[in-house]
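Incident log, structure service

09:12 report received: a user says their structure output differs between two submissions of the same chain.
09:20 pulled the input from the user's history:
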Amino acid sequence: MTSVVLDLRNAATSVWPMFKGRTIRYLELDEMLRMQGYDGFVASRDAFSIIEAWKDSRWIVFSPDGSELRLTPKGHEQLAFWEEEDRLWKNGGNTSEMPLAKRLVAGEPASNLRRIQSVIGGSTVNGIHDPYTTPGSLETLLKLADMKTKFSLMLRLLRPPVTKPTERAALVGLLKDINSERKTTWVIRTYVRPTKPHRRFLVLDDGSIVTCGMSLNQIDKDEALERIVAGSEYAIHDRAFFEDEWKGGTPL
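09:34 re-ran on a clean worker, output below:
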């Protein structure tokens, strides 16, 4: 980890908890950082450049007049991620890996992302079946991708029809932006069935299946998480279901 990244991380973990959940005046934050030693001397970054880097990373947002700022949801998640790293280190754990926990925990969205990432491991996600795929689901996938989780450039997402025009427009718009920015060709198809299947799962490149008890649009829940080996009856069933519905599906 470079000294620049370390400065941003260490400065954040030292002062963000002091104004988490509230706004803070820019001058107050600047003074707090300077008191922490971020004054541009002795090989440290200055407070101004640190705050600007946080803003560029979309971890903080300024008030219209620029006098106050607060953490964004992305900033809260980043802080939770760093705090989890610190907790694992203090407990003697390896911060590069987490146990293959088979449950997600409410109130721990950052840790749940790491659990999902850990269960997927070095495999590539080729397909996702989720009856409640929304723009929030795509945002979760982007967070996992930014954590080095591998997704196929031609990722296939399968769900029932979208009934609300506004929801469909938002989903199509975000998917288009993702494909443009990340040079991918992710595709969503919908299908029609007599009853809506509630099973949610990810299809990996080795044929195994990762099942989630909840939809990816909201991972802040107590739910099951499990990787099922490729040769098992459940994995074979889920792969066949996915391929059959994909073939007859309609592009979103």
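09:41 both user submissions now match this output. Likely a transient worker issue. Closing.
09:42 reviewer note: The CA atoms of residues 164 and 186 lie 21 Å apart. The domain at 3-84 is CATH 1.10.10.10 (Arc Repressor Mutant, subunit A).
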